[in-house]
TrEMBL record, chains A, B, C:
Similarity-based family: Belongs to the UPF0126 family.
Entry's localization field: Cell membrane
Keywords: Cell membrane, Membrane, Transmembrane, Transmembrane helix
Keyword Mitochondrion appears in the UniProt entry: no
Name assigned to this protein: Glycine transporter domain-containing protein
GO cellular component: plasma membrane
Principal subcellular localisation of the protein: membrane
Domain Glycine transporter: 6-81, 93-166
Transmembrane segments: 6-24, 31-52, 64-84, 91-107, 175-195
Cited InterPro entries: Gly_transporter (IPR005115)
Membrane topology: Multi-pass membrane protein
Pfam families: Gly_transporter
Lineage: Bacteria, Pseudomonadati, Bacteroidota, Cytophagia, Cytophagales
Amino acid sequence: MSIQYVLEIIGTFSFAISGALAVRDQKHQDWFSATFTAFISSIGGGTLRDILLDSYPLVWVRDIAIIYAIVAGVITTFVFYRYLIRLRKTLFFFDTWGIALFTIVGTEKALHLGVRPEIAAIMGVFSAVMGGVIRDVMTNEIPIIYRKEVYATACLAGACCYLLLDKVGVERNTAFIAASLVIIVLRILAVRYQWSVPRFFR
Amino acid sequence: MSIQYVLEIIGTFSFAISGALAVRDQKHQDWFSATFTAFISSIGGGTLRDILLDSYPLVWVRDIAIIYAIVAGVITTFVFYRYLIRLRKTLFFFDTWGIALFTIVGTEKALHLGVRPEIAAIMGVFSAVMGGVIRDVMTNEIPIIYRKEVYATACLAGACCYLLLDKVGVERNTAFIAASLVIIVLRILAVRYQWSVPRFFR
Amino acid sequence: MSIQYVLEIIGTFSFAISGALAVRDQKHQDWFSATFTAFISSIGGGTLRDILLDSYPLVWVRDIAIIYAIVAGVITTFVFYRYLIRLRKTLFFFDTWGIALFTIVGTEKALHLGVRPEIAAIMGVFSAVMGGVIRDVMTNEIPIIYRKEVYATACLAGACCYLLLDKVGVERNTAFIAASLVIIVLRILAVRYQWSVPRFFR
């Protein structure tokens, strides 16, 4: 059991928590919709990436631990939600950690499947953000892509950083950690100093 | 021509009717949008299942009868819609029959493709409800997953029942009928006695 | 480099422009969301078609020129947008040209993959309109399918025309041009004389 695998399970678990919490604002929410939303949020991005790259079987179809990590996230949310919503900062770090991890894992996987770096970067960003986009579209929220936060852009920066370090021959684990830190630090700074991506139309 | 095939065609036909009826509440509706919506509602769930399981060619790409069943459903809706909307109960039974059938057929197909029972249950539920979810997202409705009815949960119960009966060695046709009945009876009782799935957040 | 390839690049470029322009009405828009929306609008339809037909690798995964055409479209929109929005007619012609091209290329590709003509027509229409539908769903717009314009219906007419000409043995380039013209002329006439597809429910 590699460290990366453990990290992926933790990422899935924390995405499931943020997914389950997202049904709070729905007019009607129940156990099914919370579990369903947690599931879509966690596996949506990676599933889209693997479908686009024709990489089968899908991770969660092959490895039941992913499903159990999601169920654990849902139960954790149910038991501790009063506590969790007071822990906004903790949640923010969990989510930020999740997108950092998913971006680099996704970029790496795409590279290994032999696509060009530009495509690998797109796949990394998709892995991290598309689960949330699908969740937002389904729950009639404005997708995170169209909100003010620096979110997907931080992922893109991290993916590009990883590709650059990989290109110049930096050892894989170092590149992994450095690129993840780029995403995490960028996002924290962006929230702290209210950075935003330059407007497209003035 | 097996009985199961005939049932699938009937399920597709009845899903097409409920899909075409869904455009009534759109600001603008025409022949194209009605047919398109009927098509998405009917084939959406099964198509998603087959893409997730890498099972190609897709049923409706291979078997043109599916397309004709959808067209027949659209024309039936056009000709009889005044009559159909008075027949709410009939429609409810058609739809309930459709989701029961699609759930068990989907679960079975996934099992045959060699996935674990947990994944097969997810695929069964997806087959039954994701067509409707995609339709709702496209027509700006709140997806059926986030409404009060016991809908997807009944499908999940039926899928689990099928898997259980299959595991203990019950003969396939018996398991099929018993699990379908679980879904149909659960949904009828839920509507009759206004059951709902327990809330996730109190 | 065939003429068809050049046309596809132009089609992608013009779809990227209309995608980037679509973020103007979003509450928040930035460089990332404009590029993302342009990307989804341009490749969404063809990607869905190829996933449904199990045709891998996807065009834009294999051919980086597609990505560069999208980036060029985004930059063009940024530089010239004040000019572009005054050029409504020019944009309309670009978009109409785009859907005509994508419809026939999509129909042709599906035919070559060996599906029946009915399925090929569906794939042609999907290639042309589903990128826009996904974009509209993501940006909380009413999908173009549910608007009054004759849009997808013109594509369907063009696809059927191509299939008919192909069936009676008309030479490929002639069929391509004739069918594209059907779509372009139909759409122009529809806008000019305010044609609309007959309502489904009276």
